[in-house]
């Protein structure tokens, strides 16, 4: 069963541009991580001011291996505290199990 791990992160208005730029220049290592299935950076438009970093993994174990490994550490070097001050307050990890999913049925 796939699992979804979402980093929900509040970025102050004056840091949002820089935050998005950082993601444009992100490490790009997650793509080649075993068990990785999907990543999306979601910019808040209405109803919330939290960015969501959506990731989907083949298993909990696959996520844990990535999160505790060097690629995660490298991808986050210098990225966090400056852009999301008091990150422990402004960032939350949400975990889900995928119980249904669908893709477009196109020929
Ligand atoms: C305080 C916690 C966190 C902050 C402030 C943060 C912020 C950032 C930033 C700014 C980047 C862009 C790269 C850089 O500039 O360093 C990044 C990359 C990334 N973050 Fe986080 N992050 C945090 C925790 C997490 C967690 C828990 C996840 C798990 C879902 C996650 C998923 C990712 C992914 C998938 C990338 C792209 C890595 C790649 O390209 O290989 N982050 N993060």
Automatic annotation (TrEMBL):
Pfam families the UniProt entry points to: ABM
Domain of life: Bacteria
Annotated keywords: Monooxygenase, Oxidoreductase
Gene Ontology molecular function terms on file: monooxygenase activity
ABM domain residues: 3-93
Protein name listed in UniProt: Antibiotic biosynthesis monooxygenase
